[in-house]
């Protein structure tokens, strides 16, 4: 806008035209800087939270979207380790991978077939099925038949497992990068 008055241009002088591609690149840089600043503020808040409690009963719970973002970042970091070291089996924790995957799906309101839960564990299917049975026996996972296909079943975290996963991420309040 030529001659527009605003706090950056109080005199209303003509503003130079900037090529669109340069402006988009500058906007991306601004967004990255804003995200970096937000992460720094989250880290400071987490540090302060350890020093000064905001409420007598403990810290203020994080928003569900924040917990979801932390869970997604945790899962991505786990996959990244295997990629960087060219070995998924070097860092195998199939139960934790399944719990993370099912927690994320639960927060997103998605149904997870057993086969997908096995894939999410990044181990051979037989190994994943053994771990799935173990965490099901411990009451962390509920297996439900698919009403539209008798050959398929879905799994989800039990309400207690959802509560514990939420508690885990509420306690681990360090900001994460994905």
Quick gist of this model?
By secondary structure, the chain is mainly alpha-helical. It has helices at residues 20-51, 64-84, 94-108, 114-120, 125-137, 159-171, and strands at 112-113, 141-146, 149-157.
Key features of this structure:
elongated; 2 domains; Arc Repressor Mutant, subunit A; mainly alpha; 178 residues; 3-stranded antiparallel sheet; 6 helices
Structural class category? mainly alpha
| Domain tally | 2
Chain-averaged pLDDT: 78
* Biggest sheet: strand arrangement: 1-3-2
CATH architecture of the largest domain: Orthogonal Bundle
Q: Quaternary status of these chains?
A: single chain
How are helices and strands ordered from N to C? HHHEHHEEH
**What name is given to the CATH topology of the largest domain?**
Arc Repressor Mutant, subunit A
N-end to C-end Cα span: 38 Å
The profile of the biggest β sheet is: 3 strands, antiparallel
Low-pLDDT runs: 52-56
- How many beta-strand segments? 3
Number of helices: 6
**What share of residues is helical?**
55-70%
CATH superfamily of the largest domain: Winged helix-like DNA-binding domain superfamily/Winged helix DNA-binding domain
Instruction: Estimate the strand proportion.
Output: 5-15%
Query: For the CA atoms, what is the radius of gyration?
Result: 23 Å
Shape summary: elongated
Q: State the name of the first-level CATH class of the largest domain.
A: Mainly Alpha
